[in-house]
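stuck on this chain:
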Amino acid sequence: MAVRIRLRREGRKSVPMYRIVVADKEAPRDGRFIDLIGSYRPKQEKDQYTVDVEKARKWIAQGATPSDTVASLFKKAGV
């Protein structure tokens, strides 16, 4: 089972809010996920994000690959 760390869209129309989740590679974007790692709100004055650094490092150590956007958020958070 290939596991990815990616964004899951939530929020209403024109006001997106994303959750950073660990999910199976084959699962749909807003479908089932394994673990919740953080959140991201791109429409705030400053891009507001929260990341549980310990969980992120644990999943990366177990072989989960982050998407491009999540990788940039992890870089900002210091993962």
Summary: Residues 68-77 form the longest helix (10 residues). The chain has one domain: 3-77. Strands lie at 3-12, 15-24, 35-41, 48-51, 65-66.
